Amino acid sequence: MEAEEEGALIFFFFFVFVGREREKKEEEQEEDSLFFSFLTSPPPLFSSLLFSFSFSYSLLLFNELQAIVPAFHQAWLGAMTRMFGRVALSSADNISRAIDDASASGSEKEAVIDMEAAFLSFGLDVIGLGVFNFDFGSVTAESPVIKAVYGVLKEAEHRSTFYIPYWNVPLSAVLVPRQRRFRADLAVINACLDDLIEGEKSFFLFVSFSRKEGETRERKIGGKGREKPFDENLLKGKKTHPLSLSHLSYNSNLRLKKKKAPEPPATSRTPRPSPRATTAPARSPTPRCCASSSTRAVPTWATASCATT
Amino acid sequence: MTMLIAGHETTAAVLTWALFSLVESPEKMRKAVAEVDAACGDAPPATVEDVAGKLPYVRACLAESLRLYPQPPILIRRALSDDVLPAGLNGAPGGYPIGAGADLFISVYNLHRSPHLWRDPDAFVPERYSERFENAGFDGKWAGYDPSALSPSAMYPNEVSSDFAFIPFGGGARKCVGDQFAVVEAASMLAVLLRRFEFSFPEGGPGARGVGMATGATIHTANGLNLAVRRRVGVEVDEVAAARAVAKSVVGEAAVTAAS
Fold this sequence. Notes:
The complex is a heterodimer.
Chain A lengths: L2 H10 L1 E6 L16 E6 L1 H10 L4 E2 L15 H32 L4 E5 H17 L12 H18 L10 H4 L1 H22 L6 E5 L6 E5 L6 E2 L1 H26 L24 H4 L1 H13 L2 H9 L1
Antiparallel strand pairs in A: 1-2, 5-6, 6-7
Chain B lengths: L1 H23 L1 H14 L8 H7 L1 H13 L5 E6 L3 E3 L10 E3 L4 E5 H5 L46 H4 L16 H18 E4 L12 E3 L3 E3 L4 E6 L7 H7 L4 H10 L1
Antiparallel strand pairs in B: 1-4, 2-3, 5-8, 6-7
Helix pairs in contact in B: 1-4, 1-7, 2-4, 2-7
């Protein structure tokens, strides 16, 4: 390698490591003898990777998922902006209080604060309110749920990088301290989610780990035995439902006007049916048929992709 | 899980390094504070348009934080079929053959600090995003950085205006879904903090050097960003009015429900 090229390799360009994961053909083996090859190139390569041929390259862990249109709804983003402001104000309030506490004990009207920790709490509260509709409250207080969430995140990192999946060995959950901690963290998160579901506070997800190495999957608690990747749940669970409802009302207006109004379900006398009232749809066949008919006439996956553009 | 990690650690890291860089360069800090004072005053930005229109320097500071400390510092792609990547500058003339199944780790950190692509690459210069930058060495294969290529509604200099020299949120069909969310979120937080507080490295401490750098899924500090925080002298903040400006709006929330 020429000196100029080597300099470029180290300083001037981004690096691309190429990990060979499959057995290559015989004739290719000579040039690919290293487990890691090391490539270098400037932006044209990037646009090739990310843009022109983006569907030739998949995200490593989520290759089964659809690419998502990179835009949020503007009205939603507007509401989020006010929420950012509210959480930012409560972060500032916390800092103010820390300054007051510090100046009460000393003469200086200043406090030494770990701003990275403050930003992490801010970010966590924002994502909690924005995506999960749940107030972690980590800006104002340290909660055991946050600790548990971080514990589970750490374990996910550990499992995706550790050499042997020893956590599959029977009794490892009891004998290995970090696996015991992981179990305890999951119990805390579970209890919190049970509360949320009891209180019907939010659509929420429960984190579980599949046996497949390095792959984290989430399971929706309400539907027993159904395992879905998180993003899929988010899209299918949040978007398709209101869409099918809006098409249902559209269709009902057009076609069902002449028909006698659908009989109200017995359970609808309670303000909101509990998520466990799974027998409710069976007792009210007409609305149920309308819903099915709506999803048949306007499949929500098709409308979802139209609606996001 | 993706949302939880991608959605909060990254934004926190952007804010951390933006504040770190601003504390290190008092002149840029003064500029950012002046913008916040004029544009927002006590209240956080209440609309996306406030952030887009009134806080260009704060957004440039965030972009500069993302350039120097990209979150995450590497992107990963797996080749689904055989391909040949182009040679680029000083590369092998035949390009680089990539076999199906290969994992590619793209170092955004190096890309964002390349002296071939940036003037004074290691310096924190938010002003750079309004200047044209070209490199004839690429022989037309890189269009350079061109601020006029940016659409007026863009929240940050992107892969279009930099021809893929600046890709803090990736690019193409698999680009980050939360790019605007993140920029508005971080700008709101900075606007609130810069209006109210002054930051400096604690007296007698190790200063900027004590912060340290550690890399995991994101680039974070090794020892935390410990700063001495004071209330700004001569700034009386009306917290009640500030809270009212971003209070939960019933009309707004209803509009969101209807829109979704």
